[in-house]
């Protein structure tokens, strides 16, 4: 079953009161419709697009003939008609150029209305990825800053220990940051009791008053 004629179009844009002339042949398998600008070619594609999507036309009256059966264009959803596909300017703008993320023609084309929804989802996911990447960059910067601060702390603590315990031939004479970090990791595992300030000063006084062993 195929479209044989548009029986009438009334009250729709340029078609005020169109009826299919009796001397006009029915549509064949292939048809070419041509005319001057403003003669209704684009309007016809809009009519067929409504039919494709089973949308009721806004015309006062619109009737098609499919294989001898009349189809009301204002109520196409209740009729059994073959699939209709329309490729016009509106389709191109909707199925190729319509992109919420960009208004320019992209190097990759997404054809078909089903693909448009996927393309919109891709645009949404692309925005989410950009946000995640920005957050990762921030966290990476914070991590680098924290690592540098930790290295500075370990270096300063190692230097303080070296200054406090350096003696001729002493084992702390070459004390450095890696040694401090290694010992700090051991203390984290062993979890010894932490000295208060008074006890720490007392022990430091003892070490300053006695020569360090070379062993």
From TrEMBL:
Coiled coil region boundaries: none
Top-rank lineage group of the source organism: Bacteria
Residue ranges of every copy of the Protein CR006 P-loop domain listed in the record: 12-167
InterPro entries: CR006_AAA, P-loop_NTPase
Gene3D superfamilies: P-loop containing nucleotide triphosphate hydrolases
Protein name, per record: Protein CR006 P-loop domain-containing protein
Organism: Marinobacter salarius
């Amino acid at each position: 079953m195929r479209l044989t004629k548009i029986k009438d179009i009334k009250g729709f844009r340029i078609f005020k009161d169109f009826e299919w002339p009796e001397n006009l042949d029915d549509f064949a398998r292939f048809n070419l419709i041509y005319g001057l600008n403003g003669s209704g070619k684009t309007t016809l594609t809009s009519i067929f697009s409504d039919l494709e999507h089973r949308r009721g036309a806004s015309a006062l009256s619109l009737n098609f003939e499919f294989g001898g059966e009349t189809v009301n264009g204002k109520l196409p959803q209740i009729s059994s008609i073959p699939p209709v596909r329309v490729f016009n300017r509106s389709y191109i703008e909707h199925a190729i150029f319509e992109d919420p993320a960009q208004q320019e023609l992209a190097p990759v084309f997404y054809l078909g209305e089903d693909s448009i929804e996927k393309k919109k989802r891709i645009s949404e996911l692309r925005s989410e990825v950009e946000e995640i990447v920005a957050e990762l960059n921030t966290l990476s910067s914070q991590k680098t800053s924290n690592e540098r601060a930790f290295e500075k702390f370990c270096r300063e603590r190692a230097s303080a220990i070296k200054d406090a315990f350096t003696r001729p031939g002493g084992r702390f004479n070459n004390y450095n940051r890696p040694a401090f970090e290694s010992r700090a990791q051991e203390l984290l595992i062993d979890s010894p009791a932490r000295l208060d300030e008074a006890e720490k000063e007392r022990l430091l006084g003892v070490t300053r008053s006695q020569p360090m062993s070379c062993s």
